């Protein structure tokens, strides 16, 4: 009997306290590549209380590991995706300092590698605590005046080499704006 009362009490308490959850809004962006006119999947970004949840659904990649980074401009219009600029980095720093394994600093746009299977598809969900959709203190806003881009490279990121971890050409790009 005591246990039943306790259970009821817990139930009432739980229903009386509103959940802290806020409405979740996910923004979807088209991933193109190779080149600006071929569809390669999509990128979904969800603003989280302490960072950004990044979901990547890509196809047409060569099997194996691929670097993925946020670059600084929402422009995927040229064949090599060079217009997407360099990596999103700390604007207080003089220049980009790349690499998740770099003891000096890590660009805010650096992400773990993603893996494409034999069918060329890669699905990944990554949490990026330093990034934001919209202005948030202490996080880089991907939706700044010129937006940003999620770029997938031809090769894996070694997370140490400058300036892009030996990741090679840019093979897919999603303009974030
Ligand atoms: Cu990159």
Keywords:
two-stranded antiparallel sheet; binds copper (II) ion; 177 residues; mainly beta; Immunoglobulin-like; 8% helix; seven-stranded antiparallel β-sheet
Walkthrough of the structure:
The protein is globular. Helices cover 8% and strands 33% of the residues. The protein has 177 residues and is mainly beta. It has a seven-stranded antiparallel beta sheet with strand order 5-10-11-1-2-3-7, with no helix packed on it. About 5% of the residues have low confidence. The N and C termini lie far apart (58 Å). It binds copper (II) ion (CU).
Structure described in brief:
The chain is mostly beta strands. 8% of the residues lie in helices and 33% in strands.
What is the topological layout?
Elements lengths: L1 H15 L9 E7 L6 E10 L2 E8 L5 E3 L1 E4 L42 E3 L5 E7 L2 E2 L7 E2 L6 E6 L16 E7 L1
Parallel strand pairs: 8-9
Antiparallel strand pairs: 1-2, 1-11, 2-3, 3-7, 4-6, 5-10, 10-11
Bound molecules: copper (II) ion (CU).
The site of copper (II) ion has 8 residues, from β5 and β10.
Number of distinct helices: 1
Q: Give the helix proportion (percent range).
A: under 10%
Q: Report the oligomer.
A: single chain
End-to-end C-alpha gap: 58 Å
Which second-level CATH architecture applies?
A: Sandwich
How does the major sheet shape up?
7 strands, antiparallel
Report the C-alpha radius of gyration, rounded.
20 Å
* Main structural class: mainly beta
- In N-to-C order, the SSE pattern is HEEEEEEEEEEE
Order of the strands making up the biggest sheet: 5-10-11-1-2-3-7
pLDDT < 50 runs, ≥5 residues:
5-12
- The CATH superfamily appears as Superoxide dismutase, copper/zinc binding domain
Annotation, overall tally of beta strands: 11
Beta percentage is 25-35%
What is the overall pLDDT average?
89
Principal-axis shape equals globular
- How many distinct domains? 1
Assigned CATH class: Mainly Beta
């Amino acid at each position: 009997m005591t246990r039943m009362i306790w259970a009821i009490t817990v139930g009432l308490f739980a229903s009386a306290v509103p959940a802290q959850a806020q409405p979740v809004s996910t923004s979807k962006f088209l991933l193109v590549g190779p080149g600006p006119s071929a569809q390669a999947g999509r990128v979904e970004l969800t603003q989280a209380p302490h960072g950004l949840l990044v979901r990547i659904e890509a196809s047409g990649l060569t099997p194996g590991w691929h670097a993925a980074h946020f670059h600084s401009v929402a422009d995927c219009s040229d064949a090599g995706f060079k217009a997407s600029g360099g990596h999103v980095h700390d604007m207080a720093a003089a220049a980009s300092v790349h690499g998740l394994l770099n003891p000096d600093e890590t660009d805010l746009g650096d992400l773990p590698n993603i893996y494409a299977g034999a069918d060329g598809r890669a699905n990944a969900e990554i949490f990026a605590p330093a990034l934001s959709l919209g202005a948030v203190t202490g996080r880089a806003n991907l939706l700044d005046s010129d937006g940003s881009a999620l770029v997938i490279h031809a090769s894996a990121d070694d997370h140490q080499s400058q300036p892009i971890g030996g990741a090679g050409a840019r093979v897919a790009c999603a303009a974030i704006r």
